[in-house]
Structure formats: C-alpha cells, structure tokens
Specification:
By secondary structure, the chain is of the alpha/beta class. Helix content is 34%, strand content 15%.
Length: 200
C-alpha cells in the first residue's frame, strides 16, 4: 500500500468515527499568540505538549530553522496576517538545539539536487537570473544568534506595531526544555550582525 493510500484509508476511518470532534475549535488562537518554529520532526508533538498547548491555542508557523530570511517573504506575511486578521497579540520564535540548519552547506544540497536529476543548466539559469543559491541554501552557525536575528526582523518590521511582544526561545528537542533568549514585553530590539540582516 502506498503512503497516500494509507493516509486516506486512515482518514476515512477517522472521519467516520467522528474522532475530529475532540479537536473542534475556531480559527482564532485562544491564547492569542503566533509561534514561528522549526519543521523538525521531534517538535511535532513535543513542542505543544511542553508548552501546554491544545488544539486552537496558537497559530503555529513552521519552516527550516525557524528563520525569517526575508522581511517580505511568506513567513512575515503569515505573522502579519496572524496579528491583524486572527487576533494574535504576541509572537514567539522558537528554535531548537541540534537543528539541521546548523552548518547547512549549499554545495552539499545542490550536489544532492544534481543526483536527483536537477540539471546544471537549471542552476546556471537561476544564477544568471540573480538568485544566490549559495546564500539561500546556507544555514547558520549558532541557533541562539539565528533566533535573535529572526526576532529582530519581526520587532523592526515596518508593518507591525512597535509594542508587539516578540519573544525568542530555544528548545531542547529531547526534553522539551525551553530557554528564554529574549523577552519581548519591553519591545527593545536586540543587537545583531547588520551584515547578516541589512534590512533591519
């Protein structure tokens, strides 16, 4: 049985038995917060459990490394929509130790892409179009600095209110322990490397 067939078969039984009823809620987060965190598999259930979150408590945005890599990309758009349209009053950026984005090397990624059939001509076309794949596919050296960088982009965003609390935390992916890097109630931007985030 294929993966998608297995999923659809389970889903049919899930709906037929009305198991969804225990998860019914609205689109508005009960705890009025939006979380940006990593897509790491270890956090799927651990992060909500470690934070005492139930279905409906929070908006959760996931991407590799919990990074805001561009001030007008899809991550920032999601945060802005959560704040203005979905009643989120606080933002939490939560990275984690042992993140796959730590030390991510673009050449290794592109080498694997070539092995899977992506042609050099495609990479050349992207490069000639002004897309810097090396920068785009490079991770970070230290998770704490990466979280602070994302926090600063959000705190300094021209479309967000200056008094919006933006917090930065790092989670242990084995125990769920959270370490607070920066608390956002004073809304004071945290210093970071201006070359890394020139749009701040």
């Amino acid at each position: 049985m294929s993966l998608i067939s297995e999923i659809l078969n389970y889903n049919e039984a899930f709906v037929d038995s009305k198991e969804y009823e225990q998860y019914l809620t609205t689109k508005f987060p009960d705890k009025r917060m939006v979380i940006l965190t990593c897509m790491d598999t270890r956090l799927v259930e651990l992060l909500p459990k470690a934070m005492n979150l139930r279905n409906g408590d929070s908006k959760i945005i996931k991407n590799a490394g919990a990074l805001v890599s561009h001030p007008f990309g899809s991550i920032m758009r999601s945060i802005i929509v959560a704040v203005y349209e979905l009643d989120a009053d606080e933002v939490l950026v939560i990275g984690h130790r042992d993140c796959g984005m730590t030390g991510l090397n673009s050449e290794k990624v592109l080498s694997k892409a070539r092995e899977r059939g992506v042609q050099n001509e495609v990479l050349d076309t992207l490069h000639n179009s002004g897309i810097n794949l090396d920068k785009w596919l490079t991770g970070f050296e230290q998770i704490d600095e990466a979280v602070i960088g994302s926090v600063n982009i959000i705190r300094n965003h021209p479309l967000l209110p200056k008094n919006l609390p933006v917090h930065g935390l790092v989670m242990n992916p084995q125990t769920g322990k959270l370490d607070l890097l920066t608390e956002g109630y004073d809304a004071t931007p945290v210093k970071t490397n201006p070359e890394e985030f020139p749009f701040i």
